[in-house]
Structures are given as C-alpha cells and as structure tokens.
Task: structure prediction
Amino acid sequence: MPYRTQVHIEPGAQAREQRIVTDSDTAISVGTGDVPVLATSQILAWCEQASFQVLALRVPEGSTSVAMRVQIDHIRAASIGCAVTTIATLERVEGRRYVFVVSVLDEQSQELASGRVVRVMVEAQQFLAKASGSPQ
Result:
C-alpha cells in the first residue's frame, strides 16, 4: 500500500526564488566566517526553501515535507547587493522521498553553488510526536 502522504508529481517540477544578498546573509552575520560574502549556510537554507516550495502546494492536508539530506558545493563567492536566483528541480521520486537538483546563480547566470536536496513526505502530527519524544 502506498504511503498515505505520497504526492504525485512529475520530475522536472521546479521552483525559482530571487533575492538580493544583504548584510544579514553574510558569513560574518551568521557567525560562520569573517568576510562579508554570502554564507554557505544561507545558500543551504535557500536551497531547502526552494525545494520545499516545489511540494508545498501539492501536499495533502495534515502532511508536510522535511529535508532529509542536503549536499551543497559552494563554488563562488557573492558580495552584498548581488542578485541571486535559487532553482530547485525535482529530479526523481523514490517512494515518499523527493530528490531535487539545486543551483544558485548570480545575475550573470554564473553558478555560485550546486547540489541536491532530498525531502521526505511525513504526516505532520506523527512527525511532531516523534520529535518531542511523545508516545504515538
């Protein structure tokens, strides 16, 4: 029997999000470095957000998707004021796992980062109960 919260979506589904790098996005601000450039941890968060958006409107009531695995290669630096586009494209579906290819591009379409995000569909109440250690 298929998992109740499985979402039927075809590979190729995509989300694009555009942002301008601000001071609060830098390695200095998030405490991961001492240079005022886009932090790797912020790139990771943006990739998670974009992959979440691909599934968000398709998730049945009572369910959600959570990130299970994230792999990011941070290739180039981006300074404050840089326009950045994050793209998440569904590569494949493996049961209740959704595998995304993600990329982050600057305003010249040069790749700043790339990788994969794997999201898993879960029933929200069960997931929260497990997270809090409550018996089911």
About this structure: The first strand starts at residue 14 and ends at 20.
